[in-house]
Amino acid sequence: MRALQAGALAVAVCFSMGATDASSRFNSLNHRLMCTCGCSEILGECNHVGCPSSTGELQELRAGIIEGKSDKEILDTFVGKYGAVVLAAPTTHGFDLVAWIAPFAVFAAALMGTILLVRRWSVGKTQFVAQASSPSTDALKEKIRRETGIDGGF
């Protein structure tokens, strides 16, 4: 009985996945593109009044999906027409790969620098404590106490 229920659930999930394929693909693609009107918004979320670009670009996107173009073909068409600035995220090949790697590299370098700085501070502190308790320092402190009349404070 449980196997039959699991099978029915699997079939239902498989059929429901394709039910919204065009609309989910449209939403996915319009969130991977930027509006070219200069508002710096994602194409699917550009909602300012009188936008001269978003309506036409969304129609182009729908037409590409209806024509059966792949996601890559649609994105390449937009890049060819509007330039690379139309992409919401840089590509993962060529020089654009730097945009993905650089933040992590800077974070790693800052973390290493912080670790080395803290280690250096802790090493310097132990050397200072070791020097502060030497016999010559104790003699100097005693001389200062005698000459100033201050008892303690060091």
Notable characteristics:
single chain, 154 residues, mainly alpha, Helicase, Ruva Protein, domain 3, 2 domains
Please describe what this structure looks like.
By secondary structure, this protein is an all-alpha fold. It folds into 2 domains: 2-86, Helicase, Ruva Protein, domain 3 (Orthogonal Bundle); 96-148. It is built from 6 helices and no strands. It is elongated, with a radius of gyration of 33 Å.
Task: Give the tally of β-strands.
Answer: 0
Q: Largest beta sheet, briefly?
A: none
What is the CATH architecture annotation of the largest domain?
Orthogonal Bundle
Shape: elongated
* Count of structural domains: 2
- Mean pLDDT across the residues is 82
Distance between the termini: 83 Å
- According to CATH, what is the topology of the largest domain? Helicase, Ruva Protein, domain 3
So what's the CATH class of the largest domain? Mainly Alpha
Helical residue percent band: 55-70%
Number of helices: 6
